Amino acid sequence: MRAVNRATGTLENLELEERARPFRALYDHWETTQWAAHQVDLSADTATFQSLDEAEQAGMIWIFAHRFHAEFGVAKLLAPFLDAAPDYEMQLMLATQVSDEYRHLQSVLRVYEEIFGVRGGIEAVRDLADRNMDPVAQMLYAALDRRVLALHEDRSIETFCQAVFAYHCIAEGVVARTAQNLAAGQYERLGFRGLATGQKLVARDEARHIGIGVSFLRREMGRDPERTMSAITDNVEEFAELAERGLAYGRDLEQVLRDGYGVDSNAFYAEAMRLFQIRLRSIGYLDGE
Predict the structure, then answer these.
(1) Whole domain around residue 241: which residue ranges?
(2) Which member of 91, 105, 171, 256 has the lowest number of beta carbons within 10 Å of its beta carbon?
(3) Contact 143, 260 (CB under 8 A)
(4) Under a CB-based contact definition with an 8 Å cutoff, are residues 13 and 204 in contact?
(5) What's the total number of domains in the chain?
(6) CATH of the domain at 108
């Protein structure tokens, strides 16, 4: 039996991420797994944060700078997807995702206010998050945003496939999932029970989001494998290059990585590459090898 990752939480979540399924099944999963951001109990986590030393507190704030920018950015990026969706089924799945992403953003804002003590609403949170951005995250976000925003000018199925691969498989399935997997270990080590609970709920939603991308691209592989393979090949090559550049940048952030995720740049890169291979297998990109 396969090991269950601490962040994704259940074998069911891993199956959602790695196996294509009918969109109706994904929609039913969304309807039956609803949760409320305000119901996660963060009261004990406030005291836990205050008990950390300065470096550990800075590490947690750095982790959530990534969380804020990721959730805020993807919530905005979903509009081009909805507008360009090729059919009602995909449009419906993306609509459920919009709801999820804003709930995740609300969860992050709660952490800033209730655990970190940041007052002033989303603008104050954005200011603190901006001050904790790093060149690796900026580089990745810019590249992934470009793929999705291309849908404003080009609504072809090829461009839509590229955007789905960049957003669902790479942004959510590799970049975000790597950070979640490593952050889960930190929450456990430092005793953040509320954050650990919230992480499992977010991870369940995002397993479904990854599943949307896997299911869509598997469907397109069946319909026109040559076109679909061609559409995403340059994305694959670009991400591999970005990952190598990120590893080089990451070596200048070793202490920040250790304070935030408790790992070095090599461990972060290794986890990202492990997940990258899983996503490529899940969508059928490696079937011909």
Answers:
(1) 41-282
(2) 91
(3) no
(4) yes
(5) 1
(6) 1.10.620.20
